[in-house]
Each structure stands twice: as structure tokens, then as C-alpha cells.
Amino acid sequence: MTTRFTIPRPYDLHVHWRDDDRTALAVPHTVAQCAGAVVMPNLVPPVRTVADVDAYLSRLSPYLTEGFAPMMTLYLTDDTTVEDIAAAAAHPRVVGCKLYPAGATTNSHAGVTDLQALRPVLEAMAERGMVLLAHGEVLAGPGVDIFEKEARWVETQLTWLTQTVPELKISCEHMTSAVMAEFVGSAGPNVGGSVTPQHLLYDRNDLLEGGIKPHLYCLPILKKHTDRAALWRLVKDQHPRVWAGTDSAPHTRGRKECACGCAGCYSAYDMVSLYAEAFDRELGLGASAVQANFREFVAVRGAEFYGMEVSAETLTVVAEPQVVPSHYDLAGGDTVVPLCAGETLGWSVVSE
Ligand code: DOR
Ligand code: ZN
User: Which candidate among 146, 193, 266, 294 keeps its CA 20 to 30 Å from the CA of 220?
Assistant: First the structure.
């Protein structure tokens, strides 16, 4: 049993920082722990062009530090052009484009209604080595159950994408289902995907059994224990293109604990300890082989897919229990309730 090990300072390869009083909470949390992050563009209005990227970066700048790399994404719409892609590829901070099927999740109404129609844009991305970050879900509706939205997207969209634009690098964001896990597990080197802490820790029983837990509600929604097991098989087998990306999404308590609550879990406050808790429960993090896998999953595999340098700075992960705060205060008066609020995590991070 080794109770202390180091990892490179990780990247959070999928984070929501917003553009209001939640930004002042979320960005410092990510910056405190990470070497960089891939920042989501689903603001209102969305980050659609390099001009929007530059404007957002300048609003973020008070919270950023010199050594930290904020990597940005463009929000794809039906109107995105090949010229938009050329400009994005030339921008030193833009790594890819986020695909939100229109209506699939928070602030996705300006998203893509017909992926096939965007083929020239997708080809332009592939030519320039840009990553397509996919929210892989079709819309729910008659014939499509909310728990099946990801599997239907794999069958109808991802299969088409990988056959039609095979050179395109695709990151399947926040993987949740066995169907997605199996597709990514057997796909070629241009396809990988991120996994959130909540999808490693929980299944839909945790969300719904004994009462609805609004702070476990996110999209794609938590699935069955067999789906969670399929994600763990990829992680345990050390799949080279499966990595950590939190999908940390700060929503106020008021917007979560209400009759129609928002989707999203806030995990940026300490992503490493949350993933450590998940690894410890599932695999036992005291074993040095598990620690080595943890290091690669949290800090190496995703960076390699994106072509980012693995950080030379390190964090130390220690088997010291910590109690997660019940909430974080926002300047506007509301609060954000973090994932695992009030619970004890078995591991902590110290910078040495
Ligand atoms: O739970 C989620 N929250 N899933 C998403 O896809 C978006 C995110 C958000 O922005 O709140
Ligand atoms: Zn997200």
C-alpha cells in the first residue's frame, strides 16, 4: 500500500467556466490544480468565431495565471464556414470545435441540426488536425428514450462521421454508455473520449433511488451499472485514448433544486481527488500499478491525443481524507453545491 504518489499537473480536457459570477469561482479552482484546460463555448451567446474566443479570453484574463494554458473551442452551428475553421486553426489557443446537436443540452439551441450538411467544415477541420469534441446524443422524443440518446447517436452519427471523414480527430465527450464505450474501445487512433468523475462514481440508481438527487443530474444522464462497468473496463484496461475530462458545470443551487432543474455537476473544485476517490473505490488506489494507471488517465493520455505537452510540474496525491464543502458562495448571493458536497473523499492533493 503506497499512500503518496505524484502525477503531472493535469489538464481538465472538458470544463465549463461560464461568463458571469460563476466564472470567478470556477476558473481559480481549475487554475489551482491544472496546467491547462479545454474550455467549453456554450455561453449565451455562444463562442462561434475567433473574435468571440479573443473577447472571452480577455474577460477570463483576470483569473488566469501566466503558466496556465486556456485552450479554447468554437461552437459549431449550421452556419459555421470553412473560413471560420481556417481562422480557428491559425489561432494559437483554439484546439477544436464543439458539436452540440441542437437542443441536446444546456445552451445548445444554436447547435447543429444537420451534421451531414457540415461535411465541408468537418473536412476542413480534419485537414488542419483540429479535434471535434462531440456531445454525442440525439434528441429525446417519440421512439427515443432519454437513456438511449447516446447509443442512438453512436449508431446514426458517429458511425457516419468515422466512415465519411476518417481523418477527423474525434473526442467523444463525457462517455456514459456501454454502446459508446465499445465503439471508442475498438475505434482507430483518431477516436478517443473523456470520462467524468460522476460517470465513474455513480449510476442511475444513485440519481433516482430513495429520492431524486438534483446534484447528480447531468447530461448525458447517468446510466445503468452495466454501462458504468463498460466505462471502467476501458479505464482498467488502460485504453490509450480514454482520459479524464470533468464536464464541471457550475449551476446555482436555485437552478438545481427546483421543479425543472438544470443538468451539470460541479467538480472543478478538486478534480484529482474526485477521480482518486473513484479509482480507490473501484480498483484500490493504494496499489502502485493502479497509481500508474491513474497518472496516465488523469494527466497523460488526453494531453497526448490533443498534442499538448505533459506538464513538468507535479502534484502529490496523498491518502488523507478530506470533507468536501457543503457549498461555494457566489458574488451574486446564490451558491454552487459541489459534487460530493459534505462527503468525505479518501484522498487529497498537496502541491510540493
Ligand atoms: O450536464 C451537463 N451540463 N451536460 C452538458 O452537456 C452541458 C453542461 C452545462 O453546460 O451545464
Ligand atoms: Zn460539457
Answer: 294
